[in-house]
Amino acid sequence: MAASAFSLSQSLLSRSNQCNSSIGTNLDGASFVSSTRPSFSSRTCTRRWSVKSSRSAVKAAAVKIPEETDETLVEKSVNTIRFLAIDAVEKANSGHPGLPMGCAPIGHVLYDEVMRYNPKNPYWFNRDRFVLSAGHGCMLQYALLHLAAFDSVKDEDLKSFRQWRSKTPGHPENFETPGVEVTTGPLGQGIANAVGLALAEKHLAARYNKPDIEIVDHYTYVILGDGCQMEGVTNEACSLAGHWGLGKLIAFYDDNHISIDGNTEIAFTETVEARYEALGWHVIWVKNGNTGYDDIRAAIKEAKAVKDKPTLIKVTTTIGYGSPNKANSHSVHGSALGAKEVDATRKNLWWQHDPFHVPADVRKHWNRHVPQGAALEAEWNAKFMEYEKKYREAAAELRSLITGELPDRWDKTLPSYTSESPADATRNLSQQCLNSLVKVLPGFLGGSADLASSNMTLLKMFGNLGKDTPEERNLRFGVREHGMGAICTGIALHSPGLIPYCATFFVFTDYMRAAIRLAALSEARVIYVMTHDSIGLGEDGPTHQPIEHLASFRAMPNVLMLRPADGNETAGAYKVAILNKKRPSILALSRQKLPHLPGTSIDLVARGGYIISDNSSSNKPDVILIGTGSELEIAAKAGDELRKEGKSVRVVSLVSWELFNEQCDAYKESVLPAGVAGRVSIEAGSTFGWGKIVGPKGKAIGIDQFGVSAPAGRIYKELGLTVEAVVQAAKALC
Amino acid sequence: MAASAFSLSQSLLSRSNQCNSSIGTNLDGASFVSSTRPSFSSRTCTRRWSVKSSRSAVKAAAVKIPEETDETLVEKSVNTIRFLAIDAVEKANSGHPGLPMGCAPIGHVLYDEVMRYNPKNPYWFNRDRFVLSAGHGCMLQYALLHLAAFDSVKDEDLKSFRQWRSKTPGHPENFETPGVEVTTGPLGQGIANAVGLALAEKHLAARYNKPDIEIVDHYTYVILGDGCQMEGVTNEACSLAGHWGLGKLIAFYDDNHISIDGNTEIAFTETVEARYEALGWHVIWVKNGNTGYDDIRAAIKEAKAVKDKPTLIKVTTTIGYGSPNKANSHSVHGSALGAKEVDATRKNLWWQHDPFHVPADVRKHWNRHVPQGAALEAEWNAKFMEYEKKYREAAAELRSLITGELPDRWDKTLPSYTSESPADATRNLSQQCLNSLVKVLPGFLGGSADLASSNMTLLKMFGNLGKDTPEERNLRFGVREHGMGAICTGIALHSPGLIPYCATFFVFTDYMRAAIRLAALSEARVIYVMTHDSIGLGEDGPTHQPIEHLASFRAMPNVLMLRPADGNETAGAYKVAILNKKRPSILALSRQKLPHLPGTSIDLVARGGYIISDNSSSNKPDVILIGTGSELEIAAKAGDELRKEGKSVRVVSLVSWELFNEQCDAYKESVLPAGVAGRVSIEAGSTFGWGKIVGPKGKAIGIDQFGVSAPAGRIYKELGLTVEAVVQAAKALC
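YS: structure for the whole thing
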């Protein structure tokens, strides 16, 4: 049975796979594709564009079009890219023309000469990945996807740039535009995602490549700008890229000296190259990024030859290249050129075409990527068939990583508990889940930001993933929470079957919040294992004690905030996290021991909220006590007390508000009947948001101040998170 | 009139100033204090401890105590520090002994030989600042404060380490322990705060020093560890420190090769020194930090000689130095040594004393800091008197920065508006406030993370604060939101009269959330100018559109979240932000134009919520419409519509939930009477939290999904944030 392109195309990643009507109609083994991977030299250097590379920065006003030769076609293609960007921004009267105009040469070389992809199947597994970390320059990428004949960016899409529900939003969005790998815009995220993509490649290559068949083998290319370079998350991720020796990560630093506030000199005078060398990168400088095509090509060749280090290619460009009055200034960064300057730029670059026009020879030249891409995929499919014959088990596993299909009965591996099981911290129970899951889920891997022994996240069967041990599955992120988060998004978006988890103390989600939000927006299934989830961590004090964090994530779209109370709920939380393929999950876990409560359930976690005990009838308890995580025990004990005094009491676990809100009204009414106003909630965190749940007559017990350094028991008592407080509040209500 | 120590002691900073009973009782000009600042050489090198410095790492098991000489006293002092840390952690059975044991020599040299401070007045303005960025090692700082006779850390405080409401919490907290400058623990924050402290010194020195009187002149010292070095915020802040040439910032990098997960080799293999050189720092390596006192002293001398660059002194130490079985391992990082190992360490270091014992000669040696510190302050006070005579105006201004006193009628400078004033974006109205305030508030300074022209934060009267223009007041942070936030906390905590503001797009608070939280915890008055506060920013799309951010900050303790609706409310928000000296404020401001609404008020912003229009009587409107920021206009228009149809309608601006919650019940009832269940809210953000305000029968109109890239008007319409929607919801309720 052939491995069809469709089944291996990661189509599950796409909201829009119905658009890919041509998927599966590949050419089979067209003769121009050799059976081995074309080397860089055979693919680019045989063409030897004779454009002369000048080592000095080219002034915008002095652009000359060379004679009609091959090199003219390159220039023409590059100018097509520039003007598609100019025209789209102009039509939208909004957007960022400067970067596409400056980086068009890099974009052209990458998409036309270097990268291996199949435009008619953007999800082909073994494609080279491209990330525009400077996401505001997205018209560069849309122009390239358009020229390369991706169905996602057709002519009408360019013309609806930045309009309601278009395929060409104001920043690249992976969930809107097939061909866009990750969602960028917030600076530094893209390069960090790219580190994750490159790490995923290195990891999978180490696990699945065989001496005779290299089945995983692609590059990850990035363009990042001065803004990305200033961001701390970039330094974190790039330090790890150097540490891991990600030789197939090639990043172009668009060194144009301009950021929104003007010349970068006003805030950015460090020596970027030296910093990257310190981080363990290979660094190359292309001094003329405006017309130095051969230099760009040579740099890529050199970068590929360096196999044990990632490469930063600093490319000095002119922002807004070609605009006679705005190039090399911040005024071209983030707004339309204006009709007059567009005209002047057209004249300056000898561009006589109407807006959005793609010259026929340029179109023809780029169209070859359709058969070429199909052939590349077909070639790889053939290779996969051979692989499947020789390495049946490995092939089946790899296939599951590519499609995202979960093994049958995978969830049966999750541990379950009874109320007699010994009390334990949910962070420890989480470790049991992690170590069970990794046995059945080949794409499960992850680690902590230097807190593995506190977060309890080590996978005991595996060693540390390192430069020379890329096949291992324990990731050691160091104290780099933000980089960790963004890297995991990259891993998750590399292949549907990869399930990264990452860990730190819950309070330090503050460091990685931007990455978590982008994972949510990007529909990336990352599992955040967040331990020490309350004042229950005790003596480390208020800098380490989360208060507002549960509320802050409950308010964030498309992320599941789960706070399991014991072993069964922890297992249930993992089950939910893995089944929710299009959103990340945050698990808030305790440092302190918790009992396994009667009535908790693995499966009911998926309901978000459910009854763990009740002695009422007719859905009319005197009072409903609601808890989450470590405070569910307090609610349960208070329930016992109140029942002794003759009350009818329901105790509810509200393990995930988002999931509960998604249930049908009848179910919600069965758990929290509108007619019961006597409601008391308890949670060791902000009461913000609980008002809606307990209602105007109910009482929310929580913490609306910072915590305190002291033993945990003392803090709970002093801050009033006690059984007595719940009992007292309940009695006042019924 | 003499400048009393009290009035210049920044006592407003302290929660605990009633403890400083000895403030104002300084010795006057004791003879051993020279009239000029003691140079490093006269203060340390004349003593010339003859401890031999070994360039190889000292093995823990082979520690020998030298003969009784001066050097013995240093060793004894250093071991006193070590054992105070060991004993306190042991008694608490919780804490981090490893760093204090390894860094005791640095700590000793700094606090006993180098730093200039007055232990009886921790708020003396011209003191050297010390920041323990590796805050978990706080017992180092507590031991030093104790030896130096700070009243904040007495014997009983050491014995109540990490206990309820002690002065010695689990991480250093400026609001609990006088002598602690900033609150640290979350890694990287301290070094970034220190950049702010050093920047404040350089700025004030440039503004107030005169050719004949150097009235501002102190160093900022930091200890940071491997963990801090990995954090991105550290790189951001240190890049700026290099850019600004902060020559009086001296950071000790505790290079002990151990982090929680073990040897740093598993995640951290970059070349830190080379990175700092790339960032523009001077770098020194002290290879034997365990006993190389002279090397430490020489490094500090060298660092002070480099005046145009900050210095990183990499000090190679042994974590847990002295513990025969746990030194140089992660097991000594974060838990008590245990009785057996404490005994072994006592033997190994020849320490025969009981727990918490300070040998008499060590005590005597350190006690000299009491008169010496008093003399330093008295000397400075005398200098200030002279300064005041010669430079009356500058002295008055500087005095106000030191005390935090605001000028009379400062708030009268704020602009006010009528409903006839031209519509404008609140970001522009904010700029009017900033430029008005800077004229009357000498401590007002700030800037943006490379979005000055979008955030509208430029101070037109001033230039850019740069390496050679430190007197200017426009800060250019580059694209470094996290570093920006933490630096501003440092500026705010330097002097009570400094009022830093910083700016980016509201959504990018995600990048700096950890810094904002620490500002809130630290009671630092930072003003966050956060523009582009909703989907109203339009085409940039969901990566740039805040949704959950308002809710997420409303849930955070001790921070004011303000969302002004127009000019008067923007001015009112600034007034509130400046008057709230013990908490930071976040201003969410619009990109789009907004009308000036009838009924808004500068002064009523302080109430958090108030009525802008009402045609009801007896506090019983048919319906209450509640809005914030840009949506207050929609609520007001809907009110007009409904009134036309005969309804009695109240329109309420809920500009700050925190402030409204702090009002008395009667006021709250007068705005949102319990008896009125017909309530509709509208806000272009998550409805999370609104349930409590609109009540079970009310309706909260908002956005509980990510935004979309499109023109703003289209998004408002498509997502249902319209006058019609409010009218419809209101009609359904009344």
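YS: worth flagging: The longest strand of chain A covers residues 249-255.
IM: good catch. Also Chain A has 26 helices and 20 strands.
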